[in-house]
Amino acid sequence: MFDIVIVGAGTAGMTAAIYGRRAGKNVLLLEEGIYGGQIVNTPEVENYPGIQNIAGFQFAMNLYEQATGLGAELETGKVIDIQKQSPEASSQSFFRVQTEEAIFEGRTVILATGAKNRKLGLEQEEALTGKGVSYCAACDGAFYKDKSVAVVGGGNTALGDAEYLSNICKQVFLIHRREEFRGDAGLAEQLEKKENVILIRNAVVTELVGTDCLEQIRLEDVRTKETKRLTIDGLFVAVGQTPENQVFRNLVQLDEGGYVVAGEDCRTHTAGVFVAGDCRTKSVRQLTTAAADGAVAALAAVDYLNAGK
Ligand code: NAP
Predict the structure, then answer these.
(1) Index of the ligand 1 atom closest to the CA of residue 288
(2) 110 phi and psi angles, rounded to 5 deg
(3) For residue 89, what pLDDT is reported?
(4) Which positions ≥6 away from 27 have C-beta within 8 Å?
(5) What are the helix (H) ranges across the chain?
(6) Active site residue: 139, 255, 265, 303, which one?
(7) Probe ligand 1: pick from 286, 289, 293, max atoms within 8 Å of CB?
(8) Contact residues of ligand 1, CB 6 A cut-off
(9) Under a CB-based contact definition with an 8 Å cutoff, are residues 155 and 240 in contact?
């Protein structure tokens, strides 16, 4: 029986593990893939207080070493169900956390499942993924050395990806569906000054062209409806994330977007279940807020455990 079972070993989950361990609780981190979460895909992090510049992958490695160094256990497994168990009115309830291969028990649960890359929803998208279509510039950028690529999206991920790729590729097109970028204005201005970056505003990708690999994309101007084809070697899709919390819908309340409903105290409507990071209802989803949530959720779980609820 663990004191705290954390679902998801991204920034929020691993921060929660650090705080849980430092409070003397035994902690299990459950991760369905590779630890680290979304930040692993960010080439450079330059807005985490106290760290001027760090590769996202390195940041995740440091967190992992810190959490496991403090004694948090990590198991790989996709969580398929969590059931609250209330044996007797007098004794403390606990949770059975079921993965595809095993069942774990925890007195409390912290959901820190983050969010997954949103797709464009185009016909050839799945078939061409890994064949010219990518969702991770940090992972796949090197394959496009001295080639022409496009990034689609207008948030900080797209801007950061375009910046990263502009140092590797011959030409980078940044395609955004509006005039104003959602991401940091300073970063957009920086990109505008780069000779090998072309910003294409008010346009959407409507077609992926290619059989064995991506050869062209079709763009539509959202104002004039005019279309044109762009010949590129790679397309990096950076159009945001969506949560994957449906498996928890009977355990906690989800909002219409599928995020777990909780306030800044990270407490869900279910006693003993806490939520941290991008999978929670919130307005700002940053590395710093994920880390902050991890701390808040873990300390709330510690309070709950110490109160013997
Ligand atoms: P995001 O901020 O949600 O931006 C998604 C972008 O994709 C928006 O510009 C959106 O356009 C566009 N988009 C959505 N669906 C689209 C579609 N079907 N076709 C074309 N464009 C589409 O997502 P994000 O950039 O991945 O960032 C997620 C969060 O992580 C943000 O809070 C961001 O600031 C944060 N982040 C932080 C760091 C860091 O701390 N270093 C790095 C990266 C990201 P509209 O603007 O028109 O809606």
Answers:
(1) 40
(2) -115, 120
(3) 65
(4) 2, 3, 4, 5, 6, 16, 17, 20, 21, 71, 72, 73
(5) 11-22, 56-69, 125-128, 137-140, 156-166, 185-192, 287-306
(6) 139
(7) 286
(8) 42, 45, 47, 118, 120, 152-158, 160, 177-178, 182-183, 204, 238-241, 285-287
(9) yes
Best mutation site among 157, 236, 241, 283 for ligand 1 pocket (most ligand atoms within 8 Å of CB): 157
| 230-286 pLDDT per residue, tens | 999 999 999 998 998 999 999 999 999 999 999 999 999 999 999 999 999 998 888
Tokens of 96: 């059975």
- Tell me the average pLDDT across 108-120: 95
Q: Give residue 133 CA to ligand 1 midpoint distance, Å.
A: 18
CA-to-CA distance for 142 and 272, rounded, in angstroms? 44
Residue 34 is classified by DSSP as S
Residue nearest to atom 14 of ligand 1 (CA): 239
**CA 134, CA 131: separation in Å to the nearest integer?**
8
Query: Does 1.10.150.530 match the CATH number of domain 2-116+241-307?
Result: no
Q: Whose CA is nearest to atom 31 of ligand 1?
A: 285
What are the φ/ψ torsions at residue 136 (nearest 5 degrees)?
Answer: -145, 100
Does the annotation count 139 as an active-site position? Answer: yes
Q: What is the pLDDT of residues 128-150, one digit of tens each?
A: 998 999 998 987 899 999 999 99
User: Is residue 279 among the annotated active site residues?
Assistant: no
R_g (Cα) of the chain, nearest Å:
21
In this structure, which topology does domain 119-237 adopt according to CATH? FAD/NAD(P)-binding domain (3.50.50)
The CATH 3.50.50.60 domain(s) of the chain lie at: 2-116+241-307, 119-237
Taking residues 153-164, what's their average pLDDT? 95
Protein residue whose Cα sits closest to atom 24 of ligand 1: 240
Residue 176 has pLDDT above 70, yes or no: yes
Q: Which atom of ligand 1 is nearest to the CA of 238?
A: 26
Task: Give the model's confidence band at 100: pLDDT under 50 very low, under 70 low, under 90 confident, else very high.
Answer: very high
